[in-house]
Amino acid sequence: MWTRPSSGVLIESGAPVLLIRETPQHTSAVGTFDYNDLNAYLLLAAGLTQPDEETLASYEELARKAREGITIPLKDVKDLGRKEPMTTLPATASVMTAVETFGGGVHRVVVVNEHNGREVVGIFSQLRLVKFLWENGRSFPVIDQLYPQALRDLRIGSREVISINGDKPLCEALQIMNNEGISSIAVVDNHFNVVGNISTTDVKLLTRSSSLPLLRNTCTHFISVILSTRGLVDGKDSFPVFHVHPGSTLAHTVAKVVATKSHRLWVTDPLSPSSSGPPTPSHSSVHIPLVPNGTSSSSSQSQSQPPLQPPPSPSPPSANYSSSHLPQPYLPVPGPSSAVTPSIPASALPGARLSGRLVGVVSLTDILNLHARASGLSPADPAENRSRRRRSSSSSVSVRRSGEIGRELFGR
Asked: Which of 34, 113, 226, 263 has its CA 20 to 30 A from that of 14?
């Protein structure tokens, strides 16, 4: 499969990932291609990737082919982005085996038939598992009893969070996600209020060469493009709420994760004096049920859990602009117009009126790691998987600042 058709299949199918076979006749998978890979490819094609000496020659050749519109074998780009090794589980594995695996930081597993040459049966993701446990809470009483407890009491999540100011160019956000091996990044204003969210899935709006100016425009402008496209394609005009508070219950957090289909939620301080609006979303936002059926909404005693170790503090790389233009693969959704791209201030976005100051992040890995430990399992340290997906970088002001605020708030 070639890069252009594969990116079209990825976008058109709505699937979060494509499995790669050695040949059309094979039934086993040799790799994956997802939006993180597409983001890495687009950065390469735009001349915004800085390879090391060992990969410089191959990167230059790929960049040349991309600029000239030459089709590129998928096997040549599937490993451009930093990703975790492909993990498989037999179809006979138990749900708790999946909980332990995902709790160690694995984001998805390929389910195989171990009795038939490792034939692929399907893909199982963290989000699908969290949704299953949420909808079937009564069957997992040890996990179910955690839902009424507050994030602050459960001590889950990280106070070290990667964010970007809304006035920064979009290309910097894409570079950070690529270099750090993350799938989304919080966009904040000058007071560290969360004004939006950019994910690697959003790069589907950048796969036309006419979208190149968006890379140089601000992150807040791109968020407005995302919201506009969502309204045109999906008929959705509400502003997704990607944040919770330290006092939010695990039930509220999981319900919001399931409703927004997010891999992580930003933890904000609703009492921040710099917050530009009310701490709770308005009626136009996504409706989130607080507890699942059969789950008590009353408070329970605080349960002490060992906190997860926060990852090292990275720093955003500097943008290296290039006059190179993007390739033009098939795009089934309306491409954003780049004719008029005025800069939009962060305060103009709906999210600026709904959130508070960014103090941390809670992810699907954090939730499943908590579930695994509460169930007596021994998941791997998620920090090890994080370190494999990130490139070496030094501390940044935004990451340190968010961590300092988080320590103050979570210590209340």
From this structure: 113
